């Protein structure tokens, strides 16, 4: 089921995710919904709080191909290497984007959707997506990584834009 995407400034985007203790049928459905919602929004990654769940789950689809998604439960970045700046946007802050500095290479640990422990060394686009989504699970947006002089004008632009969209939506 496609679910509505939570938008900035909703408080759940600022909350640190709760670890998943046990995989249940409800969590299975949540993961399916996250994957469906991510593709419907033409996103390449989604964190559970972006559809209103407090749980530590993220999905990623670097090649945007259905059926090849990565699922991470209780995800954590354990190593970061190098620095690289490239543009990022966010489904929860639509209409704006900005260059963001990230590690070039990361190591992730967590569980897959069968509950098996997985670790992964990632670089390039996948490393960028995973860092962006792990930030969400920590209650951070990519905007928080910008300098105050960059973040404020962008946020103002976003607020104006969402105000206009609300008026059109009626
Ligand atoms: Zn995002």
Bound ligands, each once: zinc ion
Gross morphology is globular
Spatial strand sequence of the major β-sheet = 1-2-3-6-7
DSSP helical segment count = 3
N→C terminal distance: 24 Å
Compile the SSE list and pairings.
Blueprint: H1 25-40, E1 45-47, E2 57-60, E3 70-81, E4 84-89, E5 97-102, E6 105-111, E7 117-123, H2 124-137, H3 148-169
Antiparallel strand pairs: 1-2, 2-3, 3-6, 4-5, 6-7
Walkthrough of the structure:
- The protein has 170 residues and is an alpha+beta fold.
- 31% of the residues lie in helices and 26% in strands.
- It is built from 3 helices and 7 strands; from the N terminus they run αβββββββαα.
- It has a 5-stranded antiparallel β-sheet, with helices on both faces. It has a two-stranded antiparallel ribbon with strand order 4-5.
- Bound molecules: zinc ion.
The gist of it:
This protein has 170 residues and is an alpha+beta fold. It has three helices and seven strands, in the order H-E-E-E-E-E-E-E-H-H.
Could you list some keywords that capture this structure?
single chain; 170 residues; alpha+beta; five-stranded antiparallel sheet; 7 strands; globular; binds zinc ion
